[in-house]
Fold this sequence. Notes:
Blueprint: H1 2-28, H2 54-69, H3 76-101, H4 109-129, E1 136-138, E2 145-148, H5 152-171, H6 177-198, H7 210-231, H8 240-257, H9 263-267, H10 269-288, H11 298-304, H12 309-337
Antiparallel strand pairs: 1-2
Helix pairs in contact: 1-2, 1-7, 2-3, 2-7, 2-8, 3-4, 3-8, 4-5, 5-8, 5-10, 6-7, 6-8, 6-12
Amino acid sequence: MYRVMGALLLSLVICITCMPWLMGWLKRRGIGQFIREDGPQAHLAKQGTPTMGGILIVASALVGFLAMAQKLQAGTGFALGLALLGGGLLGFSDDYTKLRYARSLGLKARSKLFWQLALSLAIAFLATQRFGVDTKLYFFRRDAVLCDLGPFYFVLVFVMIIGASNAVNLTDGLDGLASGATILATTAYILISFTQFRNHQFLYTHVQGSLDIAIFCGALMGACIGFLWWNSPPAYIFMGDTGSLALGSSLATIAVLSKTELLLVVLGGLFVLEALSVIIQVAVFKVTRRRVFRMAPLHHHFELKGWSEFTTLIRLWIVAGFFVGIGFIIFYINYVGGK
Length: 339
């Protein structure tokens, strides 16, 4: 467990101490956030706030992880690093496109989908063909097989990566919301993966490199805590798509490697709600020309109802914590039942 704590503390220190330098560098080059004019009016004051802080989230998490992992078990560390770096590079391209053309929309949806497909295929191939991850869906323990997806497992990985990436990206519209929710989710995954590591030969032989997963979650958690120090309202810097796509890809890959694919829906319940609010809004509007929410994603709906940004943030953190608690309880009950 000391490696997990070491990765957490190292990535936290790097992120929290280097962020002022990054903010200064971004300000000198005029790299700031574009704000939607149709959103909450209070957000217009954030126009020009430095963005792309996700660069340091990715860098500090990678340093913390690689420094503490030492021996990358079964190659899972490579898959985790690929997810974090691949998602970060895609997000960086998206942010760079926004800045270059001075618009709030970055890469075209088709281009972003293509690269997310490529990343998911690479992770699915490496996991199943190189790192010993099977294509079965488990109810966590090795003796609780739900089904074997076979080649359709690649489809599941793609859906998970694109879903998690875009869900975190949609959630990142309020100071501290996405980073805070990720901290809560990675806390649960540290406990889950370390439990799998300690009970590998009894209940979790189907999970490879669980210690590396725990260390990676610790590094990711530390980086997000360091970032949240500067991103809490009023934010001095935003993570941008560089951070949100990296975090989403990483969470999906953690779930794949820890064989908790279905549990991610519960642990990331807030992200799911934010994404569903957009899907429902678009679908209903196309059919009825009416809006279900005042604005999607969900956090903007509450702001337009009169909630302050801080109140909205705290209440949605509570929702995220509730889902994380329920998710861990589900895992723990199943773990105890298998002993």
